[in-house]
Amino acid sequence: MRLCKPTSLLNKDRLWLTLFFLDNFDSFTYNLVDQFRTLGHQVQIYRNDCDIALVEKMALQPNSILALSPGPGNPQEAGILLPLIQRLKGKVPIIGICLGHQALIEAFGGDVVHSGEVLHGKVSNIQHDEQAMFAGLSNPMPVARYHSLMGENLPDEFIVNAEYNGIIMAIRHKTLPICGFQFHPESILTVQGGKLLENSVNWLLNRD
């Protein structure tokens, strides 16, 4: 593991919290970063080959959220991704996107399997429960999917709050501030994606 300095991107007009963003070497990383900056948050980016102790120490600072990016491959191949979740679950709010979502499922004891198709920019109309992160959003909701893997055998600690044809599209933990999305909220193809991320941050910060 290499000790690395974070890339810090700051919206100086409004600063609500710091997102510690684990980059799984994905081309969508900076699209997500830009979305979070638009919401007024500071973002510090660490790649998944960084020293885990450094990322853990930084993410445990007050007013922080750990964001897990999309990426290639599966969670087992994503450097410190899985062990970082194990260290920080229950200690800091966590949001996972695509690979990050799959990693949350696997870290809590679920399975990540092949979905049977490879999707790259496929728009699907997901059904959601209109609760928590999805409050006030259109239902069904068009979202952009870029994945060939999916989560299944969801651990009992989680609620499925969105799905498409039986595929888990979004989850939230029953008691902890943790949520995940199989699709890409930052994509222009995802209707109301910015609002979804805003809702998610608010839900994570106000989770009892």
TrEMBL record:
Look up the domain of life of the source: Bacteria
Q: Which CDD domains match?
A: GATase1_Anthranilate_Synthase (cd01743)
Q: What class of enzyme is it?
A: lyase
Sorted alphabetically, which keywords does the UniProt record give?
Answer: Glutamine amidotransferase, Lyase
Residue stretches spanning the membrane:
none
Q: What is its EC number?
A: 4.1.3.27
One Gene Ontology MF term: anthranilate synthase activity
What biological-process GO terms show up in the record? L-tryptophan biosynthetic process; phenazine biosynthetic process
Which GO cellular component terms, listed alphabetically, does the Swiss-Prot or TrEMBL entry include?
A: cytosol
As its record notes, the protein acts as a catalyst of: chorismate + L-glutamine = anthranilate + pyruvate + L-glutamate + H(+)
What positions does the domain Glutamine amidotransferase occupy?
A: 21-201
Q: Which PANTHER family match?
A: BIFUNCTIONAL PROTEIN TRPGD, MULTIFUNCTIONAL TRYPTOPHAN BIOSYNTHESIS PROTEIN-RELATED
Put simply, this protein is called anthranilate synthase
The organism named in the record is uncultured Avibacterium sp
Q: Which gene name does the record give? A: trpD_2
